[in-house]
Amino acid sequence: MRKTLHGLGLMVYMISPHATQAVTDDEMLSVNCYGCHGPNGVSTGPSMPSIAGLERRYLMKTMLNYKKGKRASTIMNRIALGYTVSDLRKISGYFSALEWTNTIAKLDEKRILRGKKIHDDLCEECHSENGKYQDHEIPRISGQVVNYLYLEMLFYQAGSKSMPQPDKMKGKIQTLEPEDLKDLSYFYASGR
């Protein structure tokens, strides 16, 4: 009898307005992303980017590019295929509404300082505010995961067709050595 009452109470709770309002459709769709991008989109991994707080239109465009096979990925292009455009819009809205949180990593101070100089010389024009600025074409990179930043810059430098980038960036990134890219990634990851 007691088991039946508990089961009945649980069923009543689940169909009550409180249970249905507790989690939105946007959040339910987005929870699947936590496995790779961390709880609430804040990465805890060494190479996976944080996505919480990214600009909504940039995030949506990125996910659509994965879905259409226009952006390189190990797995995101396959994951994105499982979502409708409406789903992707909800997911991008959910994560963009969250607050940006810098990732935490032990970083070499000398590399950070060398990266700051490279940023000031080559990158500040587009990635202003030391990489904190973002819009629908430029993602926030300040406070992002260091290994992710480094790998993305290597992809950009290689000029992959499935890694779209502005011509202005192509020209500038070609002038840098892998160690320069590492220094730059340390600077941005520092969140300064």
Q: In which range does the helix fraction lie? A: 55-70%
Mass-distribution shape: globular
Order of helices and strands: HHHHHHHHHHHH
Structural class: mainly alpha
Q: How much of the residues is beta strand, in percent? A: under 5%
In terms of quaternary structure, the protein is single chain
Task: Describe what you observe in this structure.
The chain has 192 residues and is mainly alpha-helical. The protein has helices spanning 2-15, 17-22, 25-30, 34-37, 56-67, 76-81, 85-96, 109-123, 128-131, 146-158, 167-173, 178-190.
Secondary-structure map with pairings?
Blueprint: H1 2-15, H2 17-22, H3 25-30, H4 34-37, H5 56-67, H6 76-81, H7 85-96, H8 109-123, H9 128-131, H10 146-158, H11 167-173, H12 178-190
Helix pairs in contact: 5-7, 8-12, 10-12
Structure, briefly:
By secondary structure, the protein is mainly alpha-helical. It has 12 helices and no strands.
Offer a few descriptive terms.
single chain; 192 residues; mainly alpha; globular
